[in-house]
Design a protein that fits this description.
By secondary structure, the chain is α/β, with parallel strands linked by helices. It has eleven helices and 13 strands. A six-stranded parallel sheet has the order 2-5-6-7-8-9, with helices on both faces. It has a three-stranded mixed sheet with strand order 1-4-3, with no helix packed on it. The relative contact order is 0.14.
Length: 291
């Protein structure tokens, strides 16, 4: 871990990443890709130590309230967050200034900040996004080795439900020949239904691989699934998009089960929902991101 002083914290679409790199160890992580031009080892986390100060400056300057997103490129609840508490300080600012929040994580550390999530959601909207890839706990420990497993993340979804905080499940990536079974998808969908999630986001059924990410993923396949790397190479070569063989069948299953349970499954609708700012105190629904 090393500290850096960033020049800015919010993207053009009001997303922020307080950390760069990750310690969760997910074998498929796209953020390892060389196209992101990271100049340090992926596990040597770059900590934007001045993130709260930059965020406060940005929120004060904005003309309109909007949703602030975090977690798209780097989980806001890495192991370092337990002591650094930078995510919590940023959530305090979002709450204080009356902005909305769309936060994505695989970690149950988010429960530490439940008081802030509830406060934000009372005034506007807080959308908690949790990634679920496999119903199999043993497989989860291989795919996502240094973060809480699926069962615990499902508990987090139920806690959010109890507190009235809307949730979205990112059921992605689905890895060819690993977690691409009907039984796995049905298991996850049933848990989503029990937790009454707002929606299930997939972006299709499959995996993307780029330089940097591909090499790490294949190394882990050799370690945990001997012979599977060669099967990938035969079927997909150097392709960026790797759809699972039963992609159409699984997507139809998602559609059917989500519509039956009243869960949104269309990615465009889910993205719009996460980006739509609502002022509950004024009874107003505002435009999308404040550009």
């Amino acid at each position: 871990m090393h500290e850096v002083r960033a020049k800015g914290i919010l993207s053009a679409q009001n997303g922020m990443n307080i950390y760069r790199g990750c310690t969760h160890g997910c074998i498929y992580c796209d953020a390892r890709s060389t196209c992101y031009q990271m100049d340090h080892t992926f596990e040597d986390i770059a900590v934007k130590i001045n993130a709260p100060e930059l965020l406060e400056q940005a929120l004060r300057r904005k003309r309109k309230k909007c949703m602030i997103g975090t977690g798209a490129m780097s989980d806001p609840y890495l192991h370092a967050e337990k002591d650094l508490r930078l995510t919590r300080r940023c959530l305090e600012l979002i709450d204080t200034y009356g902005y909305g929040l769309a936060i994505q994580t695989k970690s149950d550390m988010i429960l530490r900040d439940l008081d802030l999530l509830k406060s934000i959601n009372r005034k506007t909207k807080c959308v908690v996004q949790i990634t679920l890839t496999t119903y199999d706990e043993g497989l989860c420990r291989i795919l996502e080795p240094h973060v809480c497993t699926t069962a615990r993340r499902i508990e987090v979804l139920h806690i959010m439900k109890k507190e009235g905080i809307p949730t979205i499940v990112w059921m992605t990536p689905i890895l060819p020949f690993i977690n691409d079974t009907k039984e796995n998808i049905m298991g996850l969908l049933q848990e989503c239904q029990k937790a009454e999630v707002y929606g299930v986001l997939t972006f299709g059924m499959g995996l993307t691989l780029r330089d940097g990410d591909r090499q790490y993923f294949y190394k882990k396949l050799d370690q945990h699934f001997p012979g599977l790397k060669e099967r990938y190479i035969r079927k997909y070569g150097e392709a960026y998009e790797l759809p699972v063989p039963n992609h159409v069948e699984l997507m139809e299953l998602v559609r059917q089960e989500c519509e039956k349970a009243g869960m949104e499954w269309r990615s465009d609708k889910l993205m719009k929902y996460m980006h739509q700012f609502e002022d509950k105190q004024a009874g107003e629904q505002m435009t999308l991101f404040d550009f």
